[in-house]
């Protein structure tokens, strides 16, 4: 038993520490995987994510998702227990190339802009709320090569 423990301890000395960075996007543009949202109307949410942010609707088996660079948004047709703010996942974030255009389109669709502010990095930011109280943050990145990309999640 002692030999087994010593062998295990020595093996641990030669392991490399885990990187605290996101892996680069794979060929499908996915980095940190996905978020699941409980929503009352999958079609309405799919429309929002495709039209407002340029996502691509994907169905794999029974799963309905919208794909973005760095993120998949997966929908479960289940009434949510409440909005995301203050819950286990307070919000998640997207970088957008032009926040003024995105917010104008969001408002024109009758959707809620909760607040607008300048973030710590000096870029325009906003919190927006989708149906079912799904809250997320937008951060402008004028160098972004696409309309929107997944960026972060706050628990």
What layout of secondary structure does this protein have?
Elements (H helix, E strand, L loop, with lengths): L1 H12 L20 E6 L2 H12 L2 E5 L2 E6 L2 E7 L13 E6 L2 H10 L3 E7 L5 E7 L3 E7 L7 E7 L1
Parallel strand pairs: 1-4, 5-8
Antiparallel strand pairs: 2-3, 3-4, 5-9, 6-7, 7-8
Give the H and E element order. HEHEEEEHEEEE
Q: What spatial order of strands do you see in the largest sheet?
A: 6-7-8-5-9
Mean pLDDT comes to: 78
CATH architecture field: Roll
Q: In the CATH scheme, what's the topology name?
A: 2,3-Dihydroxybiphenyl 1,2-Dioxygenase, domain 1
How many domain units? 1
Helix content: 10-25%
Distance between the termini: 41 Å
User: Rg from C-alpha positions?
Assistant: 19 Å
Counted by DSSP, the helix tally is 3
Question: What would you say about this model in short?
Answer:
This protein is 22% helix and 37% strand. With 155 residues, it is α+β, with helices and mostly antiparallel strands.
């Amino acid at each position: 038993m002692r030999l087994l423990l010593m062998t295990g301890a020595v093996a641990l000395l030669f392991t490399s520490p885990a990187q605290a960075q996101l892996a680069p996007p794979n060929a499908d543009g996915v980095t940190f995987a996905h978020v699941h949202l409980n929503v009352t109307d999958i079609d309405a949410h799919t429309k929002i994510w495709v039209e407002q942010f340029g996502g691509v609707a994907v169905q794999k088996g029974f799963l309905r998702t919208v794909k973005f660079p760095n993120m998949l948004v997966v929908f479960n047709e289940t009434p949510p227990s409440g909005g995301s703010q203050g819950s286990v996942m307070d919000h998640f974030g997207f970088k957008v190339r032009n926040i003024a255009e995105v917010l104008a389109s969001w408002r024109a669709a009758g959707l809620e802009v909760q607040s607008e502010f300048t973030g710590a990095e000096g870029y325009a930011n906003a919190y927006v709320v989708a149906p079912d109280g799904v809250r997320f943050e937008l951060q402008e990145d004028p160098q972004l090569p696409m309309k929107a990309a997944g960026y972060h999640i706050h628990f």
